[in-house]
């Protein structure tokens, strides 16, 4: 038996907050099991957390045209017997669903088996799985600026994106040392997500000479699929030493973000939460093909809170000037950092588990 089943597989953006929640539950002596997909990214991340229990389930996203959608239903049907056995054997007091395709089967069977269903939406626009299951939910955690009109307000709690305990702001010099970036001046960090972003990689290659001349060093995560890797130290016309480093992947995002004076990043909910935790100003370039264009809404909300700047990918020709102006405007960077410090005041994992304790114990919690 377990207190909480956490359904969070399929992408790093779903799995990471599930792990963070499991760690916080464990610290308060609640048991949990994470239900994840059979994808390689889930397996790779899970291997780092042997103190957490994982179970893998088949499934695929509801995308890819008619054939892709038929495969989704085929995988869903195949997963139902294992999901049923899992719920019957573990008898969870509550199930927390982080969205994504695995949530559908667990949400439907959990409802039929009278388990309390809790949903978490991290994005500025509510995803398909949460929209489908919202009517069955006992509780829904939403970003503070998001509301679902069809849902009773008594079901909703506003909470952020749970982050793993190791995601903490670091001393800038120590962070740069860990990354092998022994640069003294301005450091621009470029992040395109776990798979990288070819347009951002190309932008670095096209502009690195200008950036070197401005005295701006670059640390770019190019993505495993792109395979771009380099480490060069150059000297500009003023005699300043500038470092350019491209790596396919990093599992030390706390150091990557803490090292930078400015970050250029895609706008996934997890990326924005990590940027906020490390209190680093950012220019967010939403992935234009994200489901329901949710990255645009994430970036728009972050910009409205003073945490960074939204730049549409169609206007990428403006990125160099934005970087140049921002990195030379120390007062503006300081103000953005101060805004981020205020946004970083709440620990989402603790906030959610505070509320989940009442759900688990069946207590009535007023608004």
List the defining traits of the structure above.
2 domains, Rossmann fold, 14 strands, 367 residues, elongated, 7-stranded parallel β-sheet, alpha/beta
List the helices and strands and how they pair.
Elements: E1 4-7, H1 12-27, E2 32-37, H2 40-46, E3 53-57, H3 65-90, E4 94-97, H4 102-112, E5 116-120, H5 128-133, E6 139-142, E7 156-158, H6 172-179, E8 186-191, H7 198-213, E9 216-221, E10 230-235, E11 241-247, H8 253-259, E12 262-265, H9 269-277, E13 282-284, H10 294-304, E14 308-310, H11 319-328, H12 330-343, H13 348-360
Helix pairs in contact: 1-13, 3-4, 6-8
Structural class: alpha/beta
Using the coordinates above, name the CATH class of the largest domain: Alpha Beta
Average pLDDT score: 91
Distance between the termini: 31 Å
Stated plainly, the CATH topology of the largest domain is called Rossmann fold
């Amino acid at each position: 038996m377990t207190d909480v089943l956490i359904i969070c597989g399929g992408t790093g953006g779903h799995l990471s907050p599930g792990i963070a929640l499991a760690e916080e539950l464990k610290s308060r002596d609640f048991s949990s099991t994470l239900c994840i997909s059979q994808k390689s990214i889930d397996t790779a991340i899970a291997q780092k957390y042997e103190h957490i229990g994982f179970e893998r389930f088949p499934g695929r996203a509801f995308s890819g045209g008619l054939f892709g959608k038929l495969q989704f239903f085929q995988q869903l049907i195949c997963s139902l017997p294992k999901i049923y056995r899992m719920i019957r054997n573990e008898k969870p007091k509550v199930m927390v669903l982080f969205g994504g395709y695995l949530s559908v089967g667990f949400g439907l069977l959990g409802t039929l088996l009278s388990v309390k269903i809790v949903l978490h939406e991290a994005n500025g626009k509510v995803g398909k799985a949460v929209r489908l299951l919202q009517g069955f939910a006992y509780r829904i955690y939403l970003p503070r600026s998001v509301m679902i009109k069809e849902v009773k307000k008594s079901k909703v709690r506003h909470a952020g994106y749970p982050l793993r305990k190791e995601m903490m702001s670091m001393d800038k010099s120590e962070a740069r040392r860990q990354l092998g970036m022994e640069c003294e001046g301005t450091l621009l960090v470029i992040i395109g997500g776990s798979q990288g972003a070819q347009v951002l990689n190309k932008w670095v290659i096209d502009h690195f000479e200008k950036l070197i001349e401005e005295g701006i060093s670059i640390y770019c995560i190019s993505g495993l699929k792109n395979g771009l890797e380099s480490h060069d130290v150059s000297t500009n016309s003023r005699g300043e030493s500038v470092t350019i480093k491209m790596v396919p992947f990093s599992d030390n995002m706390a150091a990557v973000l803490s090292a930078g004076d400015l970050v250029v990043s895609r706008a996934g909910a997890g990326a924005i939460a990590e940027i906020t935790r490390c209190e680093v100003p950012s220019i967010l370039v939403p992935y234009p093909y994200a489901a329901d264009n949710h990255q645009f809404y994430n970036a728009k909300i972050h910009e409205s809170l003073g945490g960074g700047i939204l730049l549409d990918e169609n206007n990428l020709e403006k990125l160099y000037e934005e970087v140049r102006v921002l990195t030379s405007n120390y007062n503006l960077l300081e103000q953005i950092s101060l805004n981020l410090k205020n946004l970083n005041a709440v620990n989402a994992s603790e906030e959610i588990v505070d509320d989940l304790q009442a759900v688990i114990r069946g207590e009535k919690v007023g608004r």
